Amino acid sequence: MKTIPSKKVWAGICTVAQEYLPQFLESPFVFDSLTLLHAYATANYSSAITDPLSHIVPAVIPVPSGSDINYIGAVILFYDSDTLTYPRCFEAFTSLPNIGNTLDFKTMDEFTTETGAAVVPHINDIFVSGAVVGKTYDKLLQGIRIINDTFFDALPALYAVVPPAAISVIQLDWQPIGSFWMAASAANGVVEWFGSEHDGAVEAWVISTTYAINNTTQAAGLYDHFNYMGDAAGFQAVYPGCGAANEAKLLSISRKYDPTRIFQTLLPGGFKIGA
Fold this sequence. Notes:
By secondary structure, the chain is α+β, with helices and mostly antiparallel strands. It is 33% helix and 25% strand. Helix 2 runs antiparallel to helix 5 and helix 5 runs antiparallel to helix 7 (199-219).
């Protein structure tokens, strides 16, 4: 572990309304799905991450309105600097008209408090993660489109068994990881709902939708076995995507600090290894 000094960061959340989507679609690429609100900007950033001080987490969020489903886009922007505002690497997002913008210099504590406000108490939630890989803009955009379309095309099936009033949040987040880490883009789907009577229906929908996404991206040659442990669901395998050498190292560390396997066998939850 290493402590990194940081006085303040330039960070915040930009929110984009669906009404600005036609203006956004005047870009050189034509999209056929409203859920691709951030597809161009996300693929553009992901394919050419050149600034190690930057990070983004874009999200597409459905907003049911009667029998219709509208969408808003929100992106968390983080830049590790207490002097520079609106860096060029964020232009694909900051150039869009927005209905909300909290970008400013703030301490990490203030930034954490701001993003933590999105956490809704007293609910049931499930996170599921996956990954697509691509070294070019076109490949990343293809992966983003596949996941967006598959995820949101499945929403009517969820609303058919769980009333919208019982659902707190559904969103599809992206965490681009460039050449500074690995050439991959991790996607995290989140569903939060009220009432345990909907647990089975939500779980079945999440599992079927996840497998549909995996099968489609695999057929397109964009699938990667990596599932981010911090957002993976219990039915997902997380260790195979780490690579054989890393998995073996994790197992050896586990056996060093838990030689009797008490935590691996008796502690509820979590991803067990070598139990």
